[in-house]
Amino acid sequence: MIRIDYIRSAFFVGLLWLAFTGAAQNPFKKGYAYSRNFVPGRVKVKAQPGAIPSIKKLSEKTEYSIFIQGNFDTTVVKISAVWIKNKRYKILRKERINTPYTVFTDPVNKTARQLVPKVKEDVTLLWPSSTSEETGIIKKELISLLAKNNVVIEINRGNKVYYVPVKKITVLPSMEEV
């Protein structure tokens, strides 16, 4: 009788251990978000002989660079959307990068800024494209994350949906300043 109770308890402890270790843990560790303003195209200058030239002002646009760090395979994982300031963006392109990842912020003084430090995990760079009108059903977890963070990355892996929040977007110098 004691032996059967011991076997049952060991069986239930094993089931509990499998339940906790087999539970879906988020394989995505951290996210980084950067923005940079730029003016697309060329500045158009119109001038008549002897007249003051008129310069057509172009609108400034914002480019976002989103990084995600973790142990994942990009062929298995589908990054479905990036939420930036409560707007849903589609992913235009993604690229696995080597770390540390730096960009030049001042070519005259040759100063570089490290955007992603050296890490052991994989890091993927995401470029969001235009805003997406389709939002679908927004889960309570996503609503809560959007209220607290400027950027939330939405990832599908199998039947699970994961979210990687980024508190704030770091603003880099605009392209005209570089």
Element layout with pairings:
Layout: H1 2-22, E1 28-38, E2 44-46, E3 54-56, E4 61-70, E5 77-84, E6 87-97, E7 101-106, E8 111-116, E9 122-131, H2 140-148, E10 151-157, E11 160-166, E12 170-171
Parallel strand pairs: 1-12
Antiparallel strand pairs: 1-4, 2-3, 4-9, 5-6, 5-10, 6-9, 7-8, 10-11
Strand order of the largest sheet: 11-10-5-6-9-4-1-12
The topology string of helices and strands comes to: HEEEEEEEEEHEEE
Number of helices: 2
Helical content band: 10-25%
Our estimate of the beta-strand percent is over 45%
The low-confidence parts are none
| Derived structural class | alpha+beta
Report the principal-axis shape.
elongated
For the termini, the CA-CA separation is 79 Å
Q: What multimeric state do the chains show?
A: single chain
How many β-strands, per DSSP?
Answer: 12
Features of this protein?
178 residues; alpha+beta; 12 strands; 17% helix
Describe the structure.
With 178 residues, this protein is α+β, with helices and mostly antiparallel strands. The protein is built from two helices and twelve strands. Strands 11-10-5-6-9-4-1-12 form an eight-stranded mixed β-sheet, with helices on one face.
